[in-house]
């Protein structure tokens, strides 16, 4: 059980995680997110190799939807953005602050970093180092293309 008895006592939880119910039961003010389930859900998802756009129904403002633009490709970054939306809602940020804050992140060094130097092929650098992270990376990057992998660094 949590020893922190001060603050918001809020938790933002991936509703699709197998341990979600355990986390929810130990938090005073849980807020769940996901694509398939959760209070905060992504809808109308449009993904490309450069990012995603989707809407989020805002449970705090019943008639309002957030328009989210993520500059990072991959379904895992949709989940990361949903978590950020949840934190913004828990902190009672304005919808436009949440939208603008997520859109402002252009890249994360070493995570799906595209190298564009005029070459006639794509280069993507990612610090994927577990079988699960490789699987997610390849789903985003590979489309009948060759791939090089250097395990453990350079």
Chain-wise SSE layout:
Blueprint: E1 10-14, H1 20-25, E2 29-34, E3 40-48, E4 51-57, E5 65-70, H2 75-90, H3 95-104, E6 113-114, E7 124-125, H4 131-141
Parallel strand pairs: 1-2, 2-3
Antiparallel strand pairs: 3-4, 4-5, 6-7
Short recap of the structure:
With 154 residues, the chain is of the alpha/beta class. 28% of the residues lie in helices and 24% in strands. The longest helix has 16 residues, at 75-90.
C-alpha geometry: globular
Number of helices: 4
Low-confidence blocks of residues? none
How would you spell out the order of helices and strands?
EHEEEEHHEEH
Query: What strand line-up does the widest sheet have?
Result: 1-2-3-4-5
As a whole number of angstroms, the C-alpha radius of gyration is 18 Å
Oligomer: single chain
What is the number of strand segments? 7
In percent, how much strand structure appears in the residues? 15-25%
Q: What integer is the average pLDDT?
A: 82
Give the biggest sheet.
Answer: 5 strands, mixed
Distance between the termini: 42 Å
Helix content: 25-40%
Provide the structure class: alpha/beta
């Amino acid at each position: 059980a949590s020893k922190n008895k001060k603050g918001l006592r809020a938790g933002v939880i991936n509703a699709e995680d197998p341990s979600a119910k355990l986390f929810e039961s130990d938090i005073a003010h849980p807020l769940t997110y996901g694509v398939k389930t959760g209070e905060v859900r992504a809808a109308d998802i449009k993904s490309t190799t450069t990012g995603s756009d989707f809407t989020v129904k805002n449970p705090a403002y019943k008639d309002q939807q957030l328009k989210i633009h993520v500059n990072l490709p991959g379904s895992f970054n949709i989940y990361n953005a949903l978590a950020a939306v949840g934190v913004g809602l828990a902190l009672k940020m304005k919808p436009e602050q949440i939208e603008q804050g997520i859109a402002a992140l252009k890249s994360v060094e070493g995570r799906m970093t595209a190298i564009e130097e005029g070459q006639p092929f794509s280069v993507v650098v990612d610090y994927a180092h577990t079988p699960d992270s490789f699987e997610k990376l390849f789903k985003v990057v590979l489309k009948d293309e060759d791939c090089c992998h250097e395990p453990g660094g350079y």
